[in-house]
Amino acid sequence: MKEIIISLLKPFADLCFRCVNFISPDVALFLYIFVLAAIAVWVLTLKQEKPQRSQKPGKFLFVHDLRVWAISILFVQAVIYIIFR
Amino acid sequence: MQRLAAIDICIVLLYLIGLLIAGYLLGKKQKTDKDYFLGGRKLKWPMVGISMVMSDIGALEIVGIAGLAYTSGLSMANYDWIGCIPAMIVAAFIFIPFYWRSGVFTIPEYLGRRYNQTVRSLVAVFWGLFMIANLGIFLWTSAKTLNILVGWPIYASILATAFVIGFYTFAGGLRAVVFTDTIQYFVLLLGSVIIIILAFIKVGGISGLVSTVEEIGGPSRKEFFHLVLPADTPHPLSWSAVLFGLAFVLSPAYWIGNQAIVQRNLGTPSERDAKKSVLFGSFLKLSIPFLVVVPGLVGFALFPNLAKGDDVYPTMLRELLPPGLAGLVFAGFLAALMSSADSYLNSASTLWTMDIYKQYIKPDASGEHLFKVGKSLTLLFIIMAVLLAPMTNRFPGVFSLFITLLSIIQGPIFALLLLGMLWKRANGQGAVAGLIFGVTTSSTLFWIKNGIFKTEDPALYVAWWSFTTALLTTIIVSLLTRPKPAESLKGLVYTTKA
What we know:
The complex is a heterodimer of chains A (85) and B (498).
Chain A: H1 2-21, H2 25-45, H3 66-84
Chain B: H1 6-27, H2 33-38, H3 45-56, H4 59-72, H5 85-102, H6 107-114, H7 117-150, H8 154-203, H9 205-217, H10 239-257, H11 259-265, H12 271-285, H13 288-292, H14 294-302, H15 312-320, H16 325-361, H17 367-388, H18 398-422, H19 428-447, H20 449-452, H21 459-480
Helix pairs in contact in B: 1-8, 1-16, 3-8, 3-11, 3-12, 3-16, 4-14, 5-10, 5-12, 6-7, 7-8, 7-15, 7-16, 7-17, 7-18, 7-19, 8-9, 8-14, 8-16, 8-17, 9-14, 10-18, 10-21, 11-16, 14-15, 16-17, 18-19, 18-21, 19-21
């Protein structure tokens, strides 16, 4: 049974391996950064994450927007990957 | 073998007694299931953020990740960086607020409302068993480390740690877990910083580390300081495994679908606080590899001939620390092991109480009754974990075992959560078929792994394929069967309002 399943899946597994092996670590790094950047862009498209007046009275600063927190974290993460690629 | 000095033992004992007292005091005013399982929804967001991270980095992670960093290098940091941060950001803005608004106690409860009670029960049983098994792994890891470090007998260590964790979780519920996690974070931080500084002084700084690894490691260590590894690397963390298996499946499944993680977010007083707690947790995650991966890297330079990678962290503690500091770092290590175990214990009790006991045994149970049942199950599960712990010794590496267990169930459950939240057409029949087929796929792939995968540890690829098959099966079966009425989906799908 085990051998039959392996023989059925092996050609597909080899094809997948050849495809991913074709991509170099430098291109893979680009994919990682792209994922982080895509999430940052998506976060920017969300509506402003301001506190309600009852939660934080007073002037609204840009750091109160939770989107700024997220984008800062993603930016630091991207820099780490570029440094330690 | 170096033993702890009297002052070190005093520090450790004071720390343990403090935890027991905190658990007792925090549990005194609790009366209902909401108090016990969700901290009365009064938990502070910075503490919840810390608790999320601490639940993730137990002794298992410290011993296991440092052990794998010892053998595989910096690529292990992927688990905490791209393997956490993108998923946590997405969770913060979509999934966590969604759970919070729906007012559920558990993720299976959400799946039950979204699909049907069969899905709820299946997921609760999968997760419940996984958590109890993991409690056993946590106890074994800590006992093994205590044995190397201070020579305590393994079974005595299992019983001692189980008693402390069991007592404060039993007495204080989620509030005690979050409070003790916060204290434990700072103790762990202090302990890790001390050991890293001492290790770097001994190895000659960063340049000393790099030159020593190049000198003793040879060609087999050429990828030691890289995060992005080629697809044909013998290490389990090739770029493709990291991106597809970890970043796209296991990580979101963990931060969005793991009851032990999400439960504390549900205990915050507002939706904004829930979001802030996850974002704060992701910020802390940036620093975690410096605490858990770097000791493994430096450990290779200092002790290159260890029999097993998992021995590196206990060996560093034993060999590097002067008397006086040992107790503090040792307390930090205990902190880490307890922070994961307490979370899993509390969440296992929540799942079995809310999704099994309340659903099948006593549907009309009051909050006070469920509170008592939850406490009893906490006690039962810690006893079961003690009995299961020795089985961990049959596996080569503790972290690999954890990831293997995780990859069997996480992919399919994540597929159900994703479709349930984002696609109105997904229905109960599709979800049951997807879950069963996904778990069958992951189990089969582990069974035949040597025949089709190039790496010896394909857990991340297994997660990817089990997720994909569960996703496709759910879509196909849902399209072939009757959709759920639109009215029953209000507030349960992202595009619908409650």
